[in-house]
Design a protein that fits this description.
- The chain starts with a helix and ends with a strand.
- The protein has seven helices and seven strands; from the N terminus they run ααββαββαβαααββ.
- It has a single domain, classed as Vaccinia Virus protein VP39 (Rossmann fold, 3-Layer(aba) Sandwich).
- The relative contact order is 0.17.
- Helix 4 links the parallel strand 4 and strand 5.
- Strands 3-2-1-4-5-7-6 form a seven-stranded mixed beta sheet.
- The chain is α/β, with parallel strands linked by helices.
- The longest helix has 16 residues.
């Protein structure tokens, strides 16, 4: 799945994202940010900020930088920051696979619903590790396919794979394959959202 396909996909859904996908994903946003336990002094990077709906759940004094490759989604995020008078919230048009930040910049790095969207998940995880401080926290919210899934769910996900470019994400995304290259030092995993379909991974960034 190439970057242009992803950008086009989010251009199509940006106008109604908050009323549809945003409602489904909101519980996961709230839960993972609560788990992040951000301090006022923390500098946080959120990859795939989208329309900026998660900004409201961070502590007011925590500095949060949100990046995304979709200009259309970021435009909506900018409007939220202005209309809600949100402080310490910053937006950048940037690809999570090619972060322009120096090494060891952030106390916490989070990617919500982005790992199965990005073109090269391995590169994305490498970049998350690089910009996160040593022993800092990495959080991932995403759906992963695994052996415990219902056979009909697996068949459905695999059946959608030929139109993944149109969807803008990979419906079938095995955790075993992801774990092989991610090599995260996982502290905790949990389930979230409707039918517990999505996973939260909390890892520590041991260099």
């Amino acid at each position: 799945m190439d970057q242009n396909s992803i950008i086009k996909s989010y251009k199509r859904v940006s106008s109604f994202y908050d009323l549809t996908f945003g409602q489904v994903f909101r519980p996961g946003q709230k839960t993972v940010i609560k788990k992040m336990d951000c301090a006022d002094t923390d500098i946080v990077l959120e990859i795939g900020i989208g329309t900026g709906s998660s900004f409201q759940y961070y502590p007011e004094k925590t500095n949060v930088i949100g990046i995304d490759i979709s200009p259309d989604m970021l435009n909506r995020a900018k409007k939220k920051i202005i209309s809600n008078n949100q402080k310490n919230r910053h937006l950048l048009l940037m690809n999570g696979e090619e972060l322009s930040f120096p090494d060891n910049t952030f106390d916490k790095v989070v990617g919500m619903y982005v790992v199965s969207v990005t073109q090269n998940p391995k590169k994305l995880i490498e970049e998350m590790k690089r910009v996160c401080k040593k022993d800092g926290d990495i959080f991932i919210v995403n759906h992963f396919s695994d052996d415990s899934d219902n056979i009909f769910v697996k068949m459905f996900e695999k059946g959608l794979m030929p139109i993944s470019k149109l969807l803008g994400w990979k419906p079938y995304f095995p955790f075993v394959e992801f774990n092989d290259y991610a090599q995260l030092n996982v502290l905790e995993t949990s389930k979230v959202n409707i039918f517990n379909y999505w996973n939260i991974i909390h890892a520590t960034n041991t260099k």
